[in-house]
Amino acid sequence: LFSVTATIWKTLSPFWGEEYNVHVPPSFHTVSLHVMDEDSLSRDDVIGKVSIRKEALTAKPQGLDCWMNLTEIDPDEEVQGEIHLQISLLGDGKVPRRLRCRVLEARDLAKKDRNGASDPFVRVRYNGKSQESVVKKSCYPRWNESFEFELDDPLADSLLTVEVWDWDLVSKNDFLGKVSFTMGVLTSLAQQEEGWFHLGPDEPKHSQDEGTLGSLRLQLRLRDETVLPSSHYKPLTELLSQSVGTHLNGNWPDLIMLIDETTTSENRQEVANNLVKLFLGQGLIKEFLDMLFKLELEKTTEPNTLFRSNSLASKSMESFLKVAGMQYLHRLLGPTINRIFEDKKYVELDPNKVELKEAGCAGLHRVQTEADVIQQSSALLQSYLSELMAALLQSALYCPLLLCQAFQQLYRQVQARFPEPEYRKVKFIAVTSFLCLRFISPAIMSPKLFHLREKHADARTSRTLLLLAKAVQTVGNLDTLVCCSKEPWMVPLQPAIQQGISQLKDFITRLVFCQESEDLDLQTRMSLRCGSMEKEGFLFLHKTKDKCIPMTSPFKKYYVTLSKDLLSYSRAQHSKKSSFISLPKIRAVEKVEEKCFGSANVMQIISSEDSGQQETLYLDCKSVNELNQWLSALRKACSHNANTMSCYHPGIYKAERWSCCHQKEKTDPGCDKTRHGVTLQEWYDPLDPDLEAQLIYRKNSLTFLSRLILEAVFSVTCEKKADVLTSLFRILQDLRDAHAAVEAKERLKYRNVFLELQT
């Protein structure tokens, strides 16, 4: 599973600013990033790569943040896969005379040929001699051959090497990897070494291009979390829930205050994310945000600075909007953002930045002037802003209930804290500081980072988005004079901005005073608005039963919908006639080899009918990112399925055999292991209360314990506070003991490993 960033055109100093969270199996070895030069007509060129081994990541628990030199791609280092070997000694009586190496099979070998496969042969070297065997057109070969050699004396110093190569008729053979063994591990005839062994690279070659290919700045962090059963986190979850409960009767929430005081600026955003998701799962997000608002207002004396700092309250509200409001944001901004990308108009208001060459001609016989460009740009921006603000006003009808309630609380608390007439705008600005400045405007400036577009905007479109975001920020500040005094070239937008301010106030008033029924099923609406396991879109599908794959393209276009319990598909988006697969019946969701259909973006869904017969549904995606999103979403939806497959065929059954391993039996169990746990972590992921509780414990346990020691030293004057701290200390200690017990047994039954990577 891998992802591809957006292409940054015509530059040698690109900036991506993209972040990926990937759940990976504990057995991974290396993370590699390849920098490519995209070509429209030919194959993309490889500029260089950066590789980071697992050991380097585990040595830096706080993460890496550094520039790393790109290195050229050495084909002898681009290896992957595993090989299944059995090594034993043969002899007369008790004296070993011969060495036997049985080569059984290999899996997931690198693809070296244009047909999306390889022609692997194995070369076994020992005592200056070698033997070989080849299998054609497979990355999952099965040799099942034995190779025997006369033993060296002394045995301990001898070396056995098993190499895998891709055989080529015309060009040079390609190296696929090797495994080496020192024969000292086998000291008697009764011993044998058998298992799957990771293929390693050849000796690295020093390149003259070292350090001349450029460098890549990365932030990487590997987190290996042991998530205990739910019962271990229940006391911590209950204590956190009590700290925001309605039974406090005016007493300050000591635990939330402790978290607020002990989190550092470096980890505050992460702690806020974990707390928001935990309280969403507990159905207490309203109470949690309400408590944070009270804490923030209690500390604020100057209303102009309210929620302007990166406090826990600000970070939590920002996180809450992204978790609970992303679908709302897409519906609100989608049409306007798409229109700007499709228009591709040159827009500029600043006279110092107007480029007449970019603007083009006004007609056949007249070149545009600077005034023409500014006038047209002003008209376009006013159109975009008016369209967006009208959509915002209408969105009061479909704004998620949780967002409405959060904004209601914020508005009313600020109004109660600053009731003076001169502060009458503060309650509106408190809402707009989150809605416009921390949510809508950042999404306009970087639509890809908010999943509104698949690719970053070009320079022209980026400038239009930036100017629109500035206008929205001005509307959010509810003051046109401040902006226009600093940037007087924004004056032409004043009419649209003034109208937008009026519409924004109207929108907030509708949210705050709407009489939406409190009897609605809040949990149902919350599941629809955030953390839902839903995905939909047009894909090309092909379904097999017992029929063969046709020679022509077997795929047909369908609209596919992933809901809570079903994967359904129909020829039209709103068609009543549709086919479906029940998610509990899905046994595997895996990629398909490129050579099977001539596409690198095909996946397969293997399901079982009530009769026990297996069916395979093939989905062809338009890009590798779309492929990975569907793979990830389906794997998460089926994460609790019983009877999942441990191995599968990455090829197809055609011409009376499997294309991957050439086995003729159609019911053959498979030649490669399934990858159920490899998924992408995305904004629409379902809530995982146990994981969030574990992350809160891990992130705060040291600071909590340090604070508890300080409290003990300086004595606790408040009896209630002492009780809270004592309970917290006991809970943290119990969790530490539970982790120690699990780690001692080395049985990490509940394991969640994920890699945070940002370029």
From TrEMBL:
Top-level taxon: Eukaryota
Domain PH: 532-639
PROSITE patterns named among the record's database cross-references: C2, PH_DOMAIN, RAS_GTPASE_ACTIV_1, RAS_GTPASE_ACTIV_2, ZF_BTK
Ranges where the C2 domain occurs: 1-68, 79-197
Domain Ras-GAP: 267-477
Keyword vocabulary terms for this entry: GTPase activation, Metal-binding, Repeat, Zinc, Zinc-finger
GO molecular function: GTPase activator activity; zinc ion binding
Pfam families: BTK (PF00779), C2 (PF00168), PH (PF00169), RasGAP (PF00616)
SMART domains from the UniProt entry: BTK (SM00107), C2 (SM00239), PH (SM00233), RasGAP (SM00323)
Biological processes, Gene Ontology terms: intracellular signal transduction
PANTHER family linked: RAS GTPASE-ACTIVATING PROTEIN 4-RELATED, RAS GTPASE-ACTIVATING PROTEINS
Protein name stated in the entry: RAS p21 protein activator 4
Organism: Electrophorus electricus (Electric eel)
